[in-house]
Design brief:
CATH architecture: Alpha-Beta Barrel
Strand order of the largest sheet: 3-4-5-6-7-8-9
CATH topology: TIM Barrel
Largest sheet: 7 strands, parallel
CATH superfamily: NADP-dependent oxidoreductase domain
Order of helices and strands: EEEHEHEHEHEHEHEHHHH
Structural class: alpha/beta
Helix content: 25-40%
Shape: globular
């Protein structure tokens, strides 16, 4: 199937500019996470279908070329919305998805790492997005928000085989530790790592620095706290001093933390999307950064 794309130019004016994940894969450092487009608890359709479509079209209008999604959001909901809103896709748009989990009828997130489950998940992503090859597929392992010890070679090798078959262009990993990243790299190149990280949850500080030296992108999920919004007196104090908001400061801190950090804040509101873009562009002075860097040592300053 030949995929037609609309011609567009990659924006270099968004906060943070762009990051080169691979020779044929350059993304805006400010991306968009599509998870919140699904219904409550990331299950079922959105309450405002037209609003969800409007958000996705505004993402592209703003020049963002990096959309993070998964077919288990909904399930199937966000990918089908992306296809409805944006297909045929702009030629610079890069859609990053993930496999390794599924949704059951109760809305839980059981693992789905068996070879047949992974192959079906890739096929579902291709079908619901209307693509013949996926730009990036992340293998998601570990627990709900943190890595767990264990080998990941077997499921990662399944994705590497699908990459060799031309169904996947690039591979990443999610919810992993340094040893698991190295294990995956022994099988195929890893272009990005997606882990839980934000200004109050900084267990991956050393990992981010290591990946930056390798030219590998680091994509924090829940950059604004996710299901538990960020809480910090220090964050609020700095925001007030800069006449900004805590969420803007949190995004700006991530952008200035390391050049390989790619932001994917999610929202189901066009207004909040624009606020996230503006917030990520906030410049934090050195004294504010030093103050914010101490938050992790204060247990989130709650």
């Amino acid at each position: 199937m030949e995929i037609k794309r609309n011609h567009s130019q990659l924006s270099t004016t968004l906060p943070g500019g762009t990051f080169k994940l691979a020779d044929d894969l350059t993304v805006t450092r400010l991306g968009y996470g599509a998870m919140q487009l699904a219904g409550p608890h990331v299950f079922g359709p959105p309450a405002d279908h037209d609003g969800a479509i409007a958000v996705l079209r505004e993402v592209v209008k703003l020049g963002i070329n990096h959309i993070d999604t998964s077919d288990f959001y909904g399930p199937h909901v966000t990918n089908q919305l992306i296809k409805e809103a944006l297909h045929p896709y702009p030629d610079q748009l890069r859609i990053v998805t993930k496999v390794g989990a599924r949704r059951d009828v109760e809305g839980n997130w059981p693992r789905a790492l068996a070879p047949d489950e992974l192959r079906q998940a890739v096929r579902d992503n291709l079908n619901n997005l209307g693509l013949d090859a996926l730009d990036v597929v992340n293998l998601r392992v570990g627990g709900l928000v943190a890595p767990e010890p264990g080998l990941i070679a077997e499921p990662f090798r399944v994705l590497a085989e699908m990459q060799h078959a031309g169904l996947i262009k690039h591979l990443g990993v999610s919810n992993v530790n340094a040893e698991q990243i190295a294990e995956a790299q022994s099988i195929a190149p890893v272009v990005c790592v997606q882990n839980f990280y934000n200004i109050t949850n900084r267990q991956d500080d050393s990992l981010i620095d290591s990946l930056a030296k390798q030219g590998i992108g680091y994509v924090p999920f829940f950059p604004l706290g996710g299901f538990t919004p960020l809480q910090s007196d220090t964050l609020s104090s700095v925001a007030a001093r800069l006449d900004s908001t805590p969420m803007s400061v949190a995004l700006a801190w991530l952008r200035q933390r390391s050049p390989n950090i790619l932001l994917i804040p999610g929202t189901s509101s066009v207004k909040h999307l624009r606020e996230n873009v503006a917030g990520a562009g906030l410049h934090l002075p050195n004294d504010a950064i030093r103050e914010l860097n101490d938050i992790a040592g204060k247990n989130g300053d709650k």
